[in-house]
Amino acid sequence: MATVELTAENFESHVKDDDILLVDFWASWCGPCKQFAPTYEKASEAHADITFGSVNTEEQQQLAGAAGISSIPTLMAFREGILVFAQPGALPPAGLEQVITAVRGLDMDDVRQQIDNQQQEG
């Protein structure tokens, strides 16, 4: 599956509707973004069950701001509508595979319980 261009108009629906959504925040002038792009594209082809989204931070400045992006590239992972991973920097192929494996392996009942506990304490 090719990457999906995410915009302010479709970002929320993808977060809510896709079981696993990876998001690459990038810009055309960013060297590390260009280095990461082939790795991300190759992973999107290898993992058809995951939605791979891409946000052009130049065109989607409000979306990047709302997501708190301060460094690019930044990779985020959402599972069942919950942000479960966010990290700036271009990952090597093995690093991206580790993230995908970890996100797939999450016990989402446990994640939701941890979120509930944090909200009760806060």
In short:
The protein is α/β, with parallel strands linked by helices. It has one domain: Glutaredoxin, CATH 3.40.30.
Provide a descriptive summary of the structure in words:
This protein is α/β, with parallel strands linked by helices and 122 residues long. It has a single domain, classed as Glutaredoxin. The protein contains 5 helices and 5 strands, in the order E-H-E-H-E-H-E-E-H-H. The protein is globular and about 45 Å long. The record marks 24 as: Deprotonates C-terminal active site Cys. Belongs to the thioredoxin family. Pfam families: Thioredoxin (PF00085). Residues 1-105 form the Thioredoxin domain.
Q: Main attributes?
A:
122 residues; alpha/beta; Glutaredoxin; electron transport; Thioredoxin; transport
Helix content: 40-55%
Structure class = alpha/beta
As a percent range, the share of strand residues is 15-25%
Q: Main β-sheet, in a few words?
A: 5 strands, mixed
Q: What is the averaged pLDDT score? A: 96
User: What is the H/E string?
Assistant: EHEHEHEEHH
CATH homologous superfamily grouping: Glutaredoxin
Instruction: Write the CATH fold name.
Output: Glutaredoxin
Domain count, please report it: 1
Q: Identify low-pLDDT runs.
A: none
Basic shape:
globular
- Major sheet strand order: 1-3-2-4-5
Radius of gyration: 14 Å
Disulfide bonds: 30-33
Site (Deprotonates C-terminal active site Cys): 24
Site (Contributes to redox potential value): 31-32
Family: Belongs to the thioredoxin family.
